[in-house]
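Schema walkthrough. Field components (list of strings):
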Amino acid sequence: MNDIPQGAGLRVEGLSLGYDARRVIEGLDLSLPAGCVTAILGPNGCGKSTLLHALARLRPPLAGRITLEGRALASFPPRALAQKLAILPQAPLAPPGIRVADLVRRGRAPWRGLLQPWSAADATACDAAIAAVGLGPQAGDPVDALSGGQRQRAWIALVLAQSTPFLLLDEPTTWLDLAHQIEILSLLRRLNRERGITVVSVLHDLNLAARYSDRLVLLGREGLIAEGSPEAVMTEANLARAFGLAARVLPDPVSGTPMVCPL
Amino acid sequence: MTRGLSLVALLCLVSLLSLTLGEVRMPLADLWQGLTTGEGPGAMTLRVLRGPRLATALGTGAVLGLSGAVFQSLLRNPLAAPDVMGFTAGSGLAVVAALVLGLVLPMPLIAAAGGIAAALVVAVVSWRPGARDNSLTLILVGLGTGFTATGLATFLGLTLGDTMAAEARRWIAGSLAARTWSHAGQVWGIGLILALALALQVRALGLLELGPDLASGLGLRVARARNMLLATAVLLAAAGVAVAGPVPFVALMAGPLGIGLTMARRPGTRLLYAAGAGAAITAGADLLARAAVPGVQLPVGVMTGLLGAPYLLWLLSREFGKGEA
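Field assembly_structure (string):
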């Protein structure tokens, strides 16, 4: 992970986000290296999702700049950006009655010209995406009929079908029970290890984030608290600054990663 | 696709009944003779009396159905339709105003200008700085805009005098009386061009259905795609109004009926079936309007109003029930 060339990932320089009246993020500098699983953590209202939206160019910065592989994010044509970077928003809308396979097909949009018919490459990418999330047997089912965990996997299949080297996810585990949360997080890590996809997600559960991420970005109300490996970021001092939370940090008995025990 | 057959069968049935039933019953044998030999009462019915009226009804219903299905998909609300939201009333008002002022312009242009003006009024009145689009607000503002346009059109229509009164009524309530092949050709011609434009935007519609953030992440220029689709839908509705007036509730009912009959899921097929359902509703309502009560020729708009108003009430009660739950 240390041999990645400079500028290979997403870089944020002097970024300010929010509205003129209320700036959620001010003068943020950050580097999200390619090839890593990164989790963005922080208290409610600290601007985690806002930052993720800015990284996907869903929201223009008030100041500063973001680069993707050394090129200004603002300079990408929409489809070229969508071939590089996929985002799964927090509450995407499933059209009523849509089947899993039809939902996933829409992930091919950036690769298809206006009059270009459905190609073998499109079909292969969709089949692979559905297989990767383990929804092969449910491909013909309506999305409404799936369980919460399966539904989230169907959405992940859609952004996988987009075949991008960068994948951003806004709270992909919210609303899921613990078993489904682990299912989603281990799926994301497997995709990273097997395909080298750079994964950046906004997460709430600190212990799971530490267990399944290579890097953590911890935001507080006054900006960036720390970034780096889980061990370097998840310290008692940092948690106190970010959340105002008094806690002990112990090694996780299973994975050895930092584990938070609130006092 | 096989489920689409029920819709095709419905269209054929409505068309055949429209040609045979009416003030004078026209047996199929006479129609066939008229079609093949070009002579006899059947030929008169096909060429002059019921043929062009049916063709106009089918075309009008199809464009209104397409328009309604686009609005319902974009605003994610079954109440969204150009008739409920006042765009067709705006088109009708523009035509009445042109009649009063004696403007000589092509009817589709006048209707399109009125529809676009009504859409702009709805957009401006419901706009709040920083607020995200709320489809129910848009629909309610549209409902008010529609009432205002209909009221103004009625008022202007009264100034036209007795000779023009029937013509004015067409543009207020919607009527298919006295339609010729030129009307049918006009609505089909403009309708096909707009349908082609819509076909090129079907994929964008499919992405917008996933919500603006995901659509944008998939490389769509969301604002531009939305505006293009809305403009196409307003023009489709105006193309219908230009020949038949603001026939109410066809656009509102067509999409759900088409989906209900065919269980279509993909955006393209849903639009196709909405067009078919709109055509069937309009032709069927026109048949009822002129043949149900002997000796009474109601305008088609009265009949679709009678059919559509209970449906609208049912939708409204369901929508507000959902809001309270």
